[in-house]
Structure formats: C-alpha cells, structure tokens
Amino acid sequence: MTLDELGQKHGTDKASGGHNYLVEYEPLLEQYRAKPELLVLEIGVREGASVRLWHDYFPAAKIVGVDILEQCSAHAADRIDIEIGDQSDGGFLRHLTERYEPDIIFDDGSHFWTHQIDTFRILFPAMKQGGIFVCEDIHTSRSKWVGKYGAPYTVSAAAYFGALAAQFAAEGHVYGTMPDSEFREITKLIEWMRFGRSFVAIKKV
C-alpha cells in the first residue's frame, strides 16, 4: 500500500481528502522504510491515527507519540510509546532530546506559532544526522488567525521558516534586519528545505 492508502485506512487527516500531505511525504520518507533502528517522533496524538500509520509504514521503527492529554496513553502498543507532556514547555522538549534521538519528527501539535518555532529550535539540532523534521499546519500563520495562534509571538511560523530558507539559500549572508547568530547556526545543520501547501520539511546534514 502507498503511504496515502495507509493514511486513508487509518483515518488520518494527513491523507487525501484531508490535508493531502502524504502524497508529498512519500518521496521524502520511502528511503527510511528499511532503515534499522529507525525512530519516528510525532507531536500530536489525538485519536492515534498517525502513530498507527507510521507503525505500519515503517515496519521496524519505534514510534514515539507526544501529547498533552493523558488519555492518549491508551494508544501505546508494540513499537508505539506515548509520552505525555506539554509542547509549550521547553524543559519537556529538552527532556525528549535526552531520551530520544529521532530520525524523523512530525510537529502536528498545537499549531501555535511559538510552539512550532520553539519545537523546531529545540528538537532539530538533537535529531540524527540525515533526519527529517516536518512542521505541519503552518496555514495557521495566516493573519486571520493571529489572535488564536499568534500570541505571544509576533513572527508567524511561516515567516520564521521563510526567513530561515532565505538565510540558508544565501549561505548565511542575508542583509538587512535578519535573525541572530543562533539562526545562522541552525542553517549550518540543514541539507535542504522543502515547502508544501501548509507544511515545511527540513533535512538535517
């Protein structure tokens, strides 16, 4: 089965009929299917559809689902671990980096700009070399949702990742009022960036 067919089987909104991410993800992810000791971490478990999708698509991988809701622990299974914690808590995110070194990360959590940006800033450097970080649902960066998803950040996730792409493409030499040295250091860890409709995928060197 294709990744999208598996997504439809498990009822995730990542599949066609929903956000339609999986058709675009498959060319990026298929190289990892046979990788030994693969670790996939996803923030946002909800009904467990996505963690079951990754469990089936990556037949030898360990899947770690992260959610703030205690009831999501019910989705733990063979090769699926559930961590309960708050994505807005930097200490909790750093705790994840101490316990896990993911090959692939999906941020399908709160969709708040501050959470999307800080999750990337903390987790991306801790990934394995050659790993892929995906931030989903960055359509919440639209100005009409600034009141719901923006505070306390004034820079949206889409703008942040766009500026990161500009910095990366210009090999760290972007002129004008651009981010600080931390921002430039992150670009040194990037092999490529790919934007799709409402998501960004970033591969680590």
Structural class per helix/strand content?
Answer: alpha/beta
Spans of at least 5 consecutive residues with low confidence: none
Q: What's the CATH architecture name?
A: 3-Layer(aba) Sandwich
Helix content: 25-40%
Describe the main β-sheet briefly.
7 strands, mixed
* Whole-number mean pLDDT: 93
Number of domains: 1
Cα gyration radius (Å): 16 Å
Q: How many strand segments? A: 7
Query: For the largest beta sheet, what order do the strands appear in spatially?
Result: 3-2-1-4-5-7-6
CATH topology: Rossmann fold
- Outline type: globular
Measured between the Cα atoms of the first and last residue, the distance is 30 Å
Structure annotation, total helices: 8
What does this structure look like?
The protein has one domain (3-154, 192-204): Rossmann fold (3-Layer(aba) Sandwich). The protein has eight helices and seven strands, in the order H-H-E-H-E-E-H-E-H-E-H-H-H-E-E. It has helices at residues 3-10, 22-29, 49-57, 90-99, 113-123, 146-150, 157-169, 181-187; strands spanning 39-43, 62-67, 80-84, 104-107, 132-136, 190-196, 199-204. Strand 4 (104-107), helix 5 and strand 5 (132-136) form a beta-alpha-beta unit. Helix 1 packs antiparallel against helix 3 and helix 4 (90-99) runs parallel beside helix 5 (113-123).
